[in-house]
Design goal:
two-stranded antiparallel sheet, mainly alpha, elongated, Arc Repressor Mutant, subunit A
Length: 122
């Protein structure tokens, strides 16, 4: 469920305006710097609201990527390869990890409750 009330109106446009100057991984902007830029633009938001806004923008189809680390930050994908690298690192790894955990829990539930549990969990 989306909670658009967690950030002010117009923040999406402001985030996209800032990120327009940060196309490509080599031009990533750190999350702290992004929050500061948004504050300068008049959006007194904290990191949590900014992250929610970025999630919603991604759901709208904006290719906002991120990379972790000291030199990490947010950026707009400049190439398909750049986006695919982000996708594999960010979503592919999380999905695989969650699926591994889910499969272990399903096995444990079947052992404890029998085969009928599989239909209830899915």
């Amino acid at each position: 469920m989306s909670d658009y009330s967690s950030y002010p109106a117009g923040l999406e446009t402001a985030v996209l305006c800032v990120l327009a100057c940060h196309q490509g991984r080599q031009r990533a902007i750190g999350r702290g710097h992004l929050v500061k830029r948004l504050n300068i633009l008049g959006y007194n938001v904290h990191e949590r609201a900014m992250r929610e806004c970025i999630k919603q923008l991604r759901r709208q189809g904006h290719l906002i990527c991120a990379m972790p680390g000291v030199n990490g930050g947010y950026y707009l994908a400049e190439t398909l390869a750049e986006f695919q690298e982000f996708d594999r690192a960010e979503f592919g790894a999380k999905i695989a990890d969650m699926n591994e955990t889910r499969q272990a829990l399903l096995r444990a539930a079947r052992m404890q409750f029998g085969e009928a549990v599989q239909m209830e969990l899915i």
